[in-house]
């Protein structure tokens, strides 16, 4: 035990030396760990999972994410990798490099364009209102499981052109993976098995919609899509569905869970936002900065290079920590302060450049609507602290599985 460390006290320096983003301690002490690394060793190496570099400063992360020639996605979206040499990509276009990724992004972009989301807005608002109606009279709820999870699932399936009533099955599959993670190497080996029910549902929709397409939905769009003049293969179709649907299910709910907990613990900030709902778009950007739902992503070096004065060899992996970059004092004034009036707010939660998150504006829309609904209709909600359940493996998703609350019962809006 390090000198000065008391029994039961978390040793952040020791953890930083053996950094493991799959460990439960990382979930429980994420900002503490990243603050220490950013100050003491901003480009750090760990031997975990074959070894990789951890980048914690804003400018270093930005250097990597903007240099697609030097830093590739060919090793997959996770450490350890979810792909073996020769395996096809599992999450197109998310784990493809440009220009190949652009061929697939162009198919998806119209579904989440500003004009498409403007048309979707009334549906999202009605869905949120109806879900809150389901528990507003009870005086208690789980804001993640009763609101964020079903809303994001229903909206995502609606856009995809899949049966909205199937949302509990899609959600159950992902909750099982998030609440009962396997050892990292086993998790990556069995990643496609984790999506088995969804995979069958996607193939069933593919067959049915060849004859009776759901107009405007993702499935119908993929059936008609052409890449290099040919139809999509089954592998391409499945990987694009997984990329779109799973991303749609998880990011917003993770963001909202962390934000609801923070505002409950900081009632003056919550009341400030409730009294100034016109600031909700800026507030959501600050939530994205402070509570990055995806803490980071890896790349692999295609040639020898340097980051922050540290040599990175060809074939070595780097982990870009969005969560750390978003709290870098060199970029953000008073970075640990939650400020709904922060301007500018150039956080890296959605990445940037060629890999800028396709679902970023859908996440913003859902988060703004859900947060407004809760602050308006459950203004005095209180978190049941002993019932909070955090996602145990925060390597790719940071937030809560459950946020139970109590509040003064209200009336249904419907």
Run of helices and strands: HHHEEHEHHEHHHHHEEHHHEEEEHHEEEE
Write down the overall mean pLDDT: 92
Report the C-alpha radius of gyration, rounded: 21 Å
Which structural category fits the helices and strands? alpha+beta
Main pleated sheet:
5 strands, mixed
Summarize the amount of helix as a percent range.
40-55%
Examine the secondary-structure arrangement and name the CATH architecture.
Orthogonal Bundle
Gross morphology: globular
Unreliable runs, pLDDT <50, ≥5 residues? 1-7
> What is the helix tally?
16
CATH class term: Mainly Alpha
State the domain count.
Answer: 1
How many strands in all?
14
Task: Write a structural description.
The N and C termini lie far apart (59 Å). Helix 6 runs parallel beside helix 16, helix 7 (143-160) packs antiparallel against helix 12 and helix 14 crosses helix 16. The strands form five sheets. The chain has a five-stranded mixed sheet with strand order 1-2-10-7-3, sandwiched between helices. Strands 4-14-11 form a three-stranded antiparallel sheet. It has a single domain, classed as Cytochrome P450 (Cytochrome p450). 47% of the residues lie in helices and 11% in strands. By secondary structure, it is an alpha+beta fold.
